[in-house]
Amino acid sequence: MSRLLEGRVGVITGAASGIGRGLAEAFVAAGARVAIFDRTGAEEAAGEIGGGTLGLPGDVTDEQRVAEAFETVATAFGGFDFLVNNAGVRVQVPFTEQTLESWRQTIDVNLTGTFVCSQAAVRLMLPRGGGKIVNLASTAGALALTERAAYNASKGGVMALTRTVAAELASRGIQCNAIAPGIVETPLSARYFTDPRMTEIITSNTPLGRWGQVDEIAGPAIFLCSEASSYVHGATLFVDGGWNAAKGY
Ligand SMILES: NC(=O)c1ccc[n+]([C@@H]2O[C@H](COP(=O)([O-])OP(=O)(O)OC[C@H]3O[C@@H](n4cnc5c(N)ncnc54)[C@H](O)[C@@H]3O)[C@@H](O)[C@H]2O)c1
Predict the structure, then answer these.
(1) Which helix (H) or strand (E) segment is 142 a member of?
(2) pLDDT-based confidence at 1, cuts 50/70/90?
(3) Is 30 domain-assigned?
(4) Ligand 1 pocket, 2 CB below 6 A?
(5) CB neighbour burial string for 37-75, b if at least 16 within 10 angstroms, e if fewer
(6) Number of structural domains in the chain
(7) What is the CATH number of the domain that holds 49?
(8) pLDDT, tens digit, for every residue of 20-52?
(9) How far is the CA of 171 from the centre of ligand 1 (A)?
């Protein structure tokens, strides 16, 4: 990836693992300075990536910790140009067996965490003339994946929140968009790839005939955090090998 993010500084949440980790590496290669905010492994991941990457431990649902960590980033980096809301969790369970506790936990991390981090980032971005927010939604926010009620609802909420932030704050320099990946090979989705029934479902429903790799999310995220996307606001970009598009008949 060319140096599309030269001189940009910001935060990627949940970037100690999976998609977020891949994004952090790709952002650094594209010229950015990145702070990883993750409840586990933030400092270790930052040390491994290098390039001045900062590792900040914390939970995206903890409003006070998020505000304090993001302030630290703005001071250390001398700015706050982007936020990628990537931290997420998923529970797979039949609808009739989903506990209220696991429902609340999923909504709390995936949707409320996105709100908490976005608000903290916007408060730092506005006095600096604006910034870019990219939210990790999912095809699950648009298509009903069975046994994932809380996850699907949380990601549909992320898409709605993305549109709202864009509508309310575009005129003040805040650009907010979402990426909706299909199935991407990470620890979160690892169980799919050892289950022949799931691999058949994924490959037959995806026009491209395969699941995605972490580095295939990096290009769209870099685009949405760079000047190349300046007229893209409130959009959800499906990065799913054509899965969502192919749901017609
Ligand atoms: N992998 C896929 O197939 C896929 C598909 C669509 C969307 N997504 C979305 O992409 C994002 C990343 O998923 P992934 O597959 O890389 O998952 P992952 O499990 O590999 O990584 C998630 C990261 O988020 C962190 N995290 C979880 N809860 C947190 C919290 N409360 N506070 C701070 N950090 C927290 C974890 O510690 C972990 O490092 C998620 O939002 C997920 O819903 C993934």
Answers:
(1) none
(2) low
(3) yes
(4) no
(5) bbbebbeebbeebeeebbbbebbbbebebbbebbeebbe
(6) 1
(7) 3.40.50.720
(8) 999 999 999 999 999 999 999 999 999 999 999
(9) 30
pLDDT in tens, 64-88: 999 999 999 999 999 999 999 999 9
Nearest alpha carbon, ligand 1 atom 31: 59
Pocket of ligand 1, candidates 13, 17, 201: which has the most ligand atoms within 8 Å of its Cβ, to mutate? 17
* Domain boundaries, position 86: 9-239
Backbone angles phi, psi at 117, to 5 degrees: -70, -40
15 Cα–ligand 1 center, Å: 8
Per the domain annotation, does 4 fall within a domain? Answer: no
Q: Which one, of 133, 47, 151, 143, lies nearest residue 91 by Cα? A: 151
**pTM of the shown model:** 0.98
Residue 123 has pLDDT above 90, yes or no: yes
Residue 2 counted as domain residue: no
| Length of the chain (residues) | 249
Task: State the average pLDDT over residues 169-175.
Answer: 98
Asked if residue 140 belongs to a domain, the reply is: yes
Residue nearest (by alpha carbon) to ligand 1 atom 19: 188
Would you name the residues annotated as active-site residues? 151
Distance 18 CA to ligand 1 centre (A): 7
